Amino acid sequence: MASPAPTPRPPRDTTGLRARLTIPVLAYCGILMAVMQTVVVPLLPDLPRLTGASASTVSWMVTASLLAGAVLTPVLGRAGDMYGKRRVLLLSLALMTAGSVICALTADIALLITARALQGAAVSVVPLSISILRDELPPERRNGAVALMSSTVGIGAALGLPAAALIIQYANWHAMFWVTAGLGTTGVLLIRWAVPESPVRESGRFDVTGALGLAAGLVCLLLAVSQGGEWGWGSAPILGLFAGAALVLALWWRHQLRAQRPLVDLRLVSRPRVGLSHVAALLTGFAFYANTLVTAQLVQAPEASGYGLGLSIVQTGLVLLPSGVVMLLLSPVSARISAARGPRITLALGAAVIAAGYGVRIADSRSLVMIMVGATVVSVGTTLAYSALPALILRAVPATQTASANGVNVLMRTVGQAVSSAAVAAVLVHHTSLVDGLPLPTLHGYLVAFSVAAAVALAGSAVALLIPGDPAPENEPVRTEGARSVADGTAKEDA
């Protein structure tokens, strides 16, 4: 049954301490989510010894989080649109915190993988927070807040790696998860105190069939993409997973077109302003993620390889740290560019800058200074692109569907990152040589990976330019048929 529309509340006071802290609190939670995705990376080489499990089994601590995040992001986004964004945001943070507590208490690999899957729910923090910002902030403050929220993904990733490495180096590895559990608990308490519940809801039943179908299809697809290199791209399990994904997602697509209240409004997605934004998100996610993957491996390669710098994991994190600082500082700039030229121009510019950053990497990947410059340029482009994507979505979808639409956009970035990981691994495996008896990627292999990422970034820039302009003012909500905003209790049909 559709939940009754509550009585419209009076305008919120935006001058009090709680109101002023809404943006910093949401940004803190976004950074925490990104940190949670990266803290396990420094542990991976030692986890087989610490848990008694094989290296392939241990890798599921990353895969489980990826799969859970991809599946739950659009589902929790839709739930937020229907049942309250703040409520679902608290649920996501609580699951993430519970996962940290489990990881801190056990060395059993099965429980660790389960806990990491729980932590994957936190990926929905960013789209839910962006939707809250749209509902709560006046238009003049919205662009900057959304840009900052989008940048938290890169900021947290850059901060998480060196921080986790330092904790692991100087303390027991369980201490890292106790720290993240404490940070997660703080996030839950801050959200409860400083962030109001959005009054914008959509009525109707939750599409359980659509959620299960999307979950099954995405698990098959992303499992095949993430494990193809290890299991063999032509192996029966991988081919079966791809076939299963195609079948399940085709049936899911048909169901979504027929459902009265679908999990994902495919008619909305078919509009060029929305659909092309999702395609651009996939391509940008691919291009951005290659930078993190390749840089970390390249600088840690031994000096005997002829190009590697032999850096430790802590030093590697410090190499990537400037990228996170740049993303934090540039988020207001990207918002101003979007306000002046429109988010599609910002997106196209950002993707082009990402390609330029890879051009720097191709020109010189032996000097530490040039490696850091190239990685930072890629982060500059990522800041511009990632801040523009939610702005495009907010302008193109009804106010009652912002969380689910942004959830799909984040999902497309996640798929792009998964494909990037598989593509980079395939390139580097194909270009290897023996160094002190161990197979290592060649410098040529890294340059090929940079070239592929640059080409994908340029494709993303081209797609961004194809997105139609915005015909309506940003602060004017667009409604779709049957959608209901409980803030005013009205329903209007989309023209």
Tell me what the CATH architecture of the largest domain is: Up-down Bundle
Record the strand order, biggest sheet.
1-2
The CATH superfamily of the largest domain bears the name MFS general substrate transporter like domains
Low-confidence stretches: 1-11, 471-495
Helix content: over 70%
What is the rounded Rg?
22 Å
Total strands: the figure is 2
Q: Determine the mean pLDDT.
A: 84
Strand pairing plus helix content: what structural class? mainly alpha
Instruction: Supply the number of structural domains.
Output: 3
Walk me through this protein's architecture.
This protein has 495 residues and is mainly α. The chain has 3 domains: 16-196, MFS general substrate transporter like domains (Growth Hormone, Chain: A, Up-down Bundle), CATH 1.20.1250; 207-262; 265-471, Growth Hormone, Chain: A, CATH 1.20.1250. 74% of the residues lie in helices and 2% in strands. The protein is built from 18 helices and 2 strands. It has helices spanning 17-38, 47-51, 55-58, 60-83, 85-105, 109-119, 125-136, 139-170, 173-194, 208-231, 236-258, 266-269, 272-300, 313-341, 343-363, 368-396, 402-430, 443-466; strands at 432-435, 438-441. A hairpin with a 2-residue loop joins strand 1 (432-435) and strand 2. Helix 1 (17-38) packs across helix 8 (139-170). The model is unreliable at 1-11 and 471-495 (pLDDT under 50).
